[in-house]
Amino acid sequence: MVTLRPANLDDMGWFHTLACEPTARALSFTTEAPSWLGHRMWYAELLGSQDALAWVVESPEPVGVVYVRRRAKDATISVNLSPETRGKGYGPLAIEQATSHTQTAWGLPVTAYIRFDNTPSAIAFSRAGYVYWGSATIKGHFTLTYRYRYV
Ligand SMILES: CC(C)(COP(=O)(O)OP(=O)(O)OC[C@H]1O[C@@H](n2cnc3c(N)ncnc32)[C@H](O)[C@@H]1OP(=O)(O)O)[C@@H](O)C(=O)NCCC(=O)NCCS
Asked: CATH number, domain at 37?
């Protein structure tokens, strides 16, 4: 079972730990690990923003994080699980729940940007009900756009 708990200031270290994890870094658009100072600023903005929602993924212990950001016509979603909890089906469940919360809060379509070389992520988003939407080059990386199929 997977639940989402709204993130708070005490979760700043957990978000940083996951953001610095080598595989997640290698599959991200900015491969350099964030400094603690940079992360603090980023996290404060995330929690304080009217245009963002962030959760800790629990099962029942923390297994990852997921957050969404509102844009003009859609919301974007990001997810990151700890290495030892990947491949167990937690990701699709967390994505489904975050997507549902986002649609309830904002009534917008939800978009995921997935690097072409991140096959596990494409599988997980497909399992959560996302479909291929298009492609783009982001910071030099060929990227697939997936969108939740039920708006
Ligand atoms: C992408 C991610 C959220 C998917 O969640 P998940 O819970 O691992 O998803 P699933 O359990 O459905 O597994 C999806 C696929 O991951 C792959 N996988 C399996 N074990 C894995 C492991 N230990 N580590 C990484 N990927 C694994 C498999 O290809 C699996 O597909 P399969 O079940 O058909 O073999 C999660 O792996 C993760 O946090 N990865 C690192 C960060 C990341 O890439 N975030 C997304 C950026 S767009």
From this structure: 3.40.630.30
Residue type, 39: H
The pTM of the whole model exceeds 0.90 = yes
Q: How many domains, the chain?
A: 1
User: Which segments of the chain are extended strands (E)?
Assistant: 3-6, 52-58, 62-70, 75-81, 110-115, 130-138, 141-148
Q: Is the dihedral of CA 110, 115, 120, 122 positive or negative?
A: positive
80 within ligand 1 shell (Cβ under 6 A) = yes
Q: Which positions ≥6 away from 147 have C-beta within 8 Å?
A: 74, 109, 110, 111, 112, 130, 131, 133
Q: For residues 132 and 103, is the Cβ–Cβ distance under 8 A?
A: no
pLDDT tens-digit map of 53-97: 999 999 999 999 999 999 999 999 999 999 999 999 999 999 999
Which residue range forms the structural domain that includes residue 116? 3-148
Q: Is 108 helix (H, G, I), strand (E, B) or coil?
A: coil
Report the residue among 99, 123, 139, 144 best suited for mutation to probe ligand 1: largest number of ligand atoms under 8 A from its CB: 123
